[in-house]
């Protein structure tokens, strides 16, 4: 009689060296695991819950200014440095890791409205309502933390007085030009005390300016006549301009897609435009309940952060209509400026309560060194959550956010208003001859005209 | 319209009149040229104007339309209001013009109003004279005599050009200025210059466009440029967007990697390296190199002794080579194959044996012999070692080629080492000889062997005594068979003896195995052919014999197992000969036959020998059928079956009509009501999925004890609800998918546990259900996938490193037609592209 026994050949289970991993045999036959979908669903649910549990986005606050933070600039060449300026003319350089002031740049008489640093991180440019543009030499970051012992003050390397107050400044990527916005758009060189070029289209003052990081000769401005304009420095002329229904407070170019820009609007939405077709927005990012004050793209180009007058910071996907994250604290007041860190890991916000706040870009991300196995586990959790995100339970958990009461209420009001508008539109449509009432989509409706 | 046109023409007339009266006194030639210039523009009006310019007033008289001419009363009379209205219009326009006039006159009253101010007139004419240098009379006559009609509200001036000027007519040309200069000195030069300038159109400077217009054009150009600038990014952006994963900062610089950098850190360690380094670092040599290399010769000096030594060495080596060459040539010329074979063998066996001295060779031979002896004694290389045993026991030699090769090599070594032994035993045994003398001996030997075997098998027939075999009838049958077998064996031996020489050798191949009896079979079949249908017993026995022999046969085990079954069954039959069981075997394929026999056997036992009559002819046909079915199978087996049929048919002599298929089926499944069962099942499923409403019953409660409730019956509300529930149930049943199918149950039960794993609507990026389901089909976890794919399946969209600055995108050429690997395939971090098919992307391009 033949007796069947479990037999394993020794050589398949014997390691050649003691350091070798034990060989694990696995049968991947799907019929052996009929419950895999249920198992993965459960894991997705758990991953979603864990994400909620570990969501601790707030890293720390940077305290030191004596007035509301009006603008910030990140050092494109040094990850830990960030500049901030306040309404009382105070400019500071912060060390993000220790969250301390490294040095101060005193000199401005009124509010500093614009701040930017050159690509190599050596020159800081500031401008403000005192009609001056000041250039500063940024101290080289030293390895030992000298800022603890003494707060050093730095004199401006150049001060240029000009005819009008300034609203914004931005530096060209990998060039030596910078642009200031005021009564008109001025292009400056580091070495000249006067602008090398000036643009004016219309009579209204320009309130924000941003260079395109991918195409360094292009820049976009927004003006108080509710317009967004694209300029080309090579032709020393404006290219195109659109007039919207409400004012645009700030503009950000997508660093990975040079044709796309997103405008932070006064009506609480952000509008993503294709630079080639400005007559309609490609995407409307709605969620803020008050004016969006500042916007900054992640260096990956996949998401952007906005700061709003409704005391919240939100992170939007670049092609999504709604935010994936909202950050708020009890003490945070109106947010005037936000920045995404150069490694796309942190978000920094400056608000009216004189503080800079450091947030994680992904609320539940584990910081510090992660072992490969841990990393794999995180990736699997993320993937499985992403896979089952359309199922109601997972979706509910992933989407749930606690909101401050004012924002929650305002959202309710906005929803009601929009609903009633929609209802009215529908009724009007129903009661008029077919084809006479046409509803333009929001991304077209908000743009009044394109000026040539 | 007629009226409108008339008005226009009248207006023109007025204008012309005014021009004639007030304009400068142009010479007729100029007027002509002006008129000529204008003519080609619009010839009709031009004609008009020319006419008017010459004073011939020509008003276009519109002919009376035919319908109004009342010719022959062909048209109905229609009151034409239009015409009257046109008249009105004219009046009005005239009035308007006249309205303007007083104002004009007021404005121009300084020049030529009434006769009140003669002084003024005088002064004016003097001024005119001064300006124009024409006699005063020319002006006076004009101003006094002619009544001026002004058509413009303001006097003509450079700020207020006339209508004609605005329309581009009667412009002052350079000829006008040239006219008075005619005949003067230098006029020809001037006119030449002017004509040259006219020809030279290239250096013509146009008036600049208005600034807003200019800026707009600039912006248009800029816009185009910007658009193009953006357009070149599209392929790159598209690729990045469609990539399943985008990588940032994967190529972080880890330090020096140039050859120079690596070489600079080299330190000599070995002796040779040291020597080299000492030479390379020698200052003198370096200097010599640097200068001109002449000094290098000095360093390279060789002594005479060394030189001679070297020369001798080289000469020796050369002569040796020459001799070896010669030897090789000689050997090559030897044509004997045996010589070469032996030489090669020698070379193989002992690499340098050929060149050894005799004493050494002897020793070597001794050693070799010792090795051989040792091998013979120990059988070391016959795969008896520990390792070889282990390998063999685990079957690894079959698995790994290397192991197998090693084992076979050992065997080979053994063969080579032990060959001497054989060769010493019989020196001159070669294969050819073997073959030559084998033929006669071998046949006899084979026959003897065959005999032995047969006898052995006959003797060894003792069947292991199992419980089944120990039963008396079984024992009887076995005994009988043994006897039969013995007889068979005897017969075989006889036959073997009968056959001799070459024939036996042929036969000998058939000695072993079933074929022995297969060869026998034709003989029997001959026998059977005589009494196929009447001699049942003998054939039966024969058949049994066959089968039993087959049992003993070892050659075809697979078939044996089948035949064992048959034999046993037939044994049973043989055991109780009365039970001539009947088979409609031929109705079935040969494969199913065995099964059927089993159950039929049982049935036959149970039913105590029921006879199913089968007509002979039919049976024949059936048997032939079965044969055709089994055409591929062995002869012996087909014969066996034939015989089975033979047996079966022999017992039945009544006529039988084969029933139709339906009848057969109904007979086969008599007693089980399939349809009824199905109906019941369906009803059950329906009740389960759409439960029947409970019948309202009177429950103990209020009023129960008073017996009032009993009298009244159930409350109407409950009854109504019950009715409604019934109705809804019926509707639900009617709506079911299987409502119209009689033989189908389609379950519509919703699995609540599985429901939470399913989505009601298609999630966002997907546009088709199939694609979505396909994407969800495979799990992505490490338990369900090999390690090599898990990483790819779980990779996030953006892979970046914290703490490394990400630079903005740099332009690079991307071929938009590049085919990218599918998203699920593994990708190198450098290649970022892959097509995500069927996902709706909001393309911003």
TrEMBL record, chain A:
Repeat region (WD), residues: 62-104, 105-146, 199-241, 285-316, 328-369
Organism: Arabidopsis thaliana (Mouse-ear cress)
Tagged with keyword Zinc: no
SMART domains: WD40 (SM00320)
SUPFAM superfamilies listed in its UniProt record: WD40 repeat-like
Matching Pfam families: Sof1, WD40
Family listed: Belongs to the WD repeat DCAF13/WDSOF1 family.
Chief place where the protein resides: nucleus
Any GO BP: protein ubiquitination
Name recorded for this polypeptide: DDB1- and CUL4-associated factor 13
Keywords: Nucleus, Repeat, Ribonucleoprotein, WD repeat
Entry GO CC: nucleolus; ribonucleoprotein complex
Residue ranges annotated for the Sof1-like protein domain, each copy included: 361-447
Top-rank taxon, per record: Eukaryota
Protein localization: Nucleus, Nucleolus
InterPro entries membership: Sof1 (IPR007287), WD40/YVTN_repeat-like_dom_sf (IPR015943), WD40_PAC1 (IPR020472), WD40_repeat_CS (IPR019775), WD40_repeat_dom_sf (IPR036322), WD40_rpt (IPR001680), WD_repeat_DCAF13/WDSOF1 (IPR051733)
UniProtKB/TrEMBL annotation, chain B:
Keyword Nucleus carried by entry: yes
Acidic residues: compositionally biased ranges: 107-121, 429-440, 537-548, 625-642
One Pfam family this sequence matches: Utp14
UniProt entry keywords in alphabetical sequence: Nucleus, Phosphoprotein, Ribonucleoprotein
Biased composition (Basic residues): 823-834
Entry annotated with the keyword Oxidoreductase: no
Biased composition (Basic and acidic residues): 482-506, 521-530, 809-822
InterPro entries reported in the protein's UniProt record: SSU_processome_Utp14 (IPR006709)
Domain of life: Eukaryota
BP terms from Gene Ontology: rRNA processing
UniProt-annotated location(s): Nucleus, Nucleolus
Positions of region (Disordered): 1-72, 104-124, 418-443, 482-570, 599-648, 687-713, 809-845
GO CC, alphabetical: nucleolus; small-subunit processome
PANTHER family xref list: U3 SMALL NUCLEOLAR RNA-ASSOCIATED PROTEIN 14 (PTHR14150), U3 SMALL NUCLEOLAR RNA-ASSOCIATED PROTEIN 14 HOMOLOG A (PTHR14150:SF12)
Protein name, entry field: U3 ribonucleoprotein (Utp) family protein
Organism: Arabidopsis thaliana (Mouse-ear cress)
Gene name linked to the record: MAH20.16
């Amino acid at each position: 009689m033949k007796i069947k026994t479990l037999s394993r050949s020794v050589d398949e289970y014997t390691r050649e060296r003691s350091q070798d991993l034990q060989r694990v045999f696995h049968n991947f036959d799907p019929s052996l695991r009929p419950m895999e979908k249920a198992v993965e669903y459960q894991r997705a649910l758990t991953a979603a819950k864990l994400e909620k549990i570990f969501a601790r986005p707030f890293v720390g606050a940077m305290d030191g200014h004596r007035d509301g933070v009006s603008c910030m600039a990140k050092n494109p060449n040094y990850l830990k440095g960030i500049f901030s300026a306040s309404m009382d003319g105070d400019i500071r350089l912060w060390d993000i890791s220790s969250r301390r002031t490294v040095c101060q740049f005193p000199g401005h008489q009124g509010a500093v409205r614009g701040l930017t640093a050159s690509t190599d991180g050596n020159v800081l440019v500031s401008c403000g309502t005192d009609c001056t543009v000041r250039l500063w030499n940024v101290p080289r970051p030293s390895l030992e933390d000298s800022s603890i012992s003494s707060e050093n003050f730095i004199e401006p390397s150049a001060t240029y007085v000009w005819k009008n107050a300034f609203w914004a400044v931005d530096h060209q990527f990998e060039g030596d030009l910078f642009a200031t916005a005021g009564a008109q758009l001025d292009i400056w060189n580091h070495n000249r005390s006067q602008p090398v070029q000036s643009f004016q289209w219309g009579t209204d003052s320009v309130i924000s300016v941003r260079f395109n990081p991918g195409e360094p000769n292009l820049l976009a401005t927004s003006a108080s006549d509710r317009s967004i304009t694209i300029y080309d420095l090579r032709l020393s002329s404006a290219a195109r301009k659109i007039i919207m229904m409400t004012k645009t407070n700030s503009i950000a170019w997508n660093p990975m897609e040079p044709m796309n820009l997103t405008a932070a609007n006064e009506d609480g939405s952000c509008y993503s435009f294709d630079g080639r077709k400005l007559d309609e927005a490609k995407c409307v990012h709605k969620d803020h309940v008050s004016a969006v004050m500042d916007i900054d793209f992640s260096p990956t180009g996949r998401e952007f952060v906005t700061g709003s007058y409704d005391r919240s910071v939100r992170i939007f996907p670049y092609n999504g209509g709604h935010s994936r994250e909202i950050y708020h604290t009890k003490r945070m007041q109106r947010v005037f400026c936000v920045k995404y860190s150069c490694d796309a890991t942190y978000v920094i916000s400056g608000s009216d309560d004189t503080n800079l706040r450091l947030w994680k870009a992904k609320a539940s991300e584990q910081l510090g060194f992660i072992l490969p196995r841990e990393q794999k586990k995180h990736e699997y959790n993320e993937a499985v959550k992403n896979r089952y995100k359309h199922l109601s339970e997972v979706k509910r958990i992933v989407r749930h956010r606690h909101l401050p009461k004012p924002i929650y209420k305002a959202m309710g009001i906005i929803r009601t208003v929009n609903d009633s508008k929609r209802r009215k539109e529908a009724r009007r449509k129903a009661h008029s001859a077919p084809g006479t009432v046409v509803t333009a989509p929001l991304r077209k409706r908000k743009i009044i005209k394109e000026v040539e | 319209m007629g009226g409108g046109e008339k008005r226009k023409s009248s207006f023109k007339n007025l204008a012309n009149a005014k021009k004639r009266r007030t304009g400068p006194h142009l010479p007729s030639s100029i007027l002509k040229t002006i008129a000529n210039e204008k003519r080609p523009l619009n010839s009709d009006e031009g004609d008009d104007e020319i006419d008017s310019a010459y004073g011939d007033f020509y008003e276009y008289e519109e002919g009376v339309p035919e319908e109004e001419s009342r010719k022959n009363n062909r048209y109905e009379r229609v009151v034409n209001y239009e015409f009257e209205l046109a008249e009105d219009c004219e009046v009005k326009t005239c009035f308007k013009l006249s309205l303007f006039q007083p104002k004009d006159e007021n404005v121009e009253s300084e020049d030529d109003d009434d006769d009140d101010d003669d002084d003024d007139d005088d002064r004016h004419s003097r001024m005119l004279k001064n300006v124009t240098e024409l006699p005063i009379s020319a002006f006076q006559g004009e101003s006094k005599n002619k009544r001026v009609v002004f058509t413009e509200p303001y006097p003509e001036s450079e700020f207020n050009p006339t209508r004609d000027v605005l329309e581009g007519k009667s412009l002052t040309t350079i000829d006008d200025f040239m006219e008075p200069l005619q005949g003067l000195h230098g006029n020809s030069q001037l006119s030449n210059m002017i004509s040259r300038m006219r020809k030279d159109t290239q250096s013509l400077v146009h008036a600049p466009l208005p600034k807003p217009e200019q800026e707009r054009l600039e912006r248009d150009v800029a816009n185009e440029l910007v658009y193009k600038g953006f357009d070149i990014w599209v392929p790159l952006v598209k690729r990045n967007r469609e990539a399943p994963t985008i990588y940032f900062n994967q190529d972080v610089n880890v330090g020096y990697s140039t050859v120079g950098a690596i070489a600079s850190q080299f330190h000599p360690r070995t002796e040779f390296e040291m020597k080299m380094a000492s030479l390379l670092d020698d200052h003198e040599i370096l200097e010599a190199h640097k200068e001109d290399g002449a000094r290098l010769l000095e360093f390279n000096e060789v002594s005479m002794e060394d030189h001679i030594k070297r020369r001798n060495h080289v000469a020796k080596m050369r002569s040796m080579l020459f001799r070896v060459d010669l030897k090789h040539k000689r050997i090559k010329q030897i044509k004997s194959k045996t010589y070469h074979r032996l030489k090669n063998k020698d070379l193989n066996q002992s690499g340098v044996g050929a060149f050894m001295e005799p004493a050494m060779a002897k020793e070597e031979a001794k050693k070799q012999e010792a090795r051989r002896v040792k091998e013979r004694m120990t059988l070391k290389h016959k795969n008896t070692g520990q390792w070889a045993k282990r390998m063999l026991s685990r079957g690894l030699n079959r698995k790994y080629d290397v192991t197998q090769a090693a084992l076979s090599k050992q065997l080979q070594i053994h063969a080579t080492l032990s060959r001497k032994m054989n060769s010493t035993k019989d020196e001159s045994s070669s294969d050819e000889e073997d073959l030559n003398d084998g033929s006669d001996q071998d046949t006899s030997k084979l026959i003897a062997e065959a005999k032995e075997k047969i006898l052995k098998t006959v003797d060894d027939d003792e069947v292991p005594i199992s419980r089944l075999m120990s039963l008396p009838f079984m024992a009887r049958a076995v005994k009988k068979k043994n006897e039969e077998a013995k007889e068979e064996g005897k017969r075989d031996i006889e036959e073997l003896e009968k056959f001799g020489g070459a024939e036996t050798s042929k036969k000998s191949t058939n000695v072993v195995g079933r074929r022995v009896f297969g060869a026998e079979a034709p003989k029997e079949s001959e026998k059977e052919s005589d009494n196929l249908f009447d001699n049942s017993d003998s054939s039966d026995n024969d058949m049994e014999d066959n089968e039993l022999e087959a049992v003993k046969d070892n050659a075809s085990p697979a078939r044996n197992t089948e035949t064992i079954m048959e034999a046993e069954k037939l044994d049973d039959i043989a055991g109780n000969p009365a039970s001539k069981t009947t088979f409609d075997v031929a109705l079935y394929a040969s494969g199913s036959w065995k099964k059927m026999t089993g159950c039929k056997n049982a049935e036959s036992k149970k039913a105590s020998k029921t006879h199913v009559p089968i007509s002979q002819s039919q049976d024949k046909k059936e048997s032939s059928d079965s044969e055709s079915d089994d055409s591929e199978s062995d002869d012996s087996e087909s014969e066996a079956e034939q015989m089975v049929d033979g047996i079966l048919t022999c017992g039945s002599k009544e006529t039988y009509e084969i029933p139709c298929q339906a009848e057969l089926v109904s007979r086969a499944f008599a007693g089980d009501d399939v349809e009824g069962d199905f109906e019941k099942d369906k009803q059950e499923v329906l009740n389960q999925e759409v439960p029947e409403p409970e019948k309202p019953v009177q429950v103990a409660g209020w009023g129960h004890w008073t017996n009032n409730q009993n009298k009244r019956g159930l409350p109407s509300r409950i009854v109504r609800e019950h009715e409604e529930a019934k109705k809804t149930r019926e509707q639900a049943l009617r709506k079911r998918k299987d409502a119209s199918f009689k033989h189908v149950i389609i379950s519509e039960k919703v699995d609540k546990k599985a429901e939470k794993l399913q989505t009601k609507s298609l999630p966002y990026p997907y546009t088709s259900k199939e694609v979505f389901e396909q994407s969800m089909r495979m799990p992505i976890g490490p338990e369900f996938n090999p390690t090599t794919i898990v990483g790819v399946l779980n990779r996030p969209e953006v892979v970046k490193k914290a703490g490394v600055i990400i630079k903005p995108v740099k332009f690079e050429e991307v071929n938009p037609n590049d085919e990218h690997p599918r998203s699920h395939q593994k990708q190198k971090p450098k290649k970022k592209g892959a097509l995500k098919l069927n996902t709706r992307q909001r393309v911003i391009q």
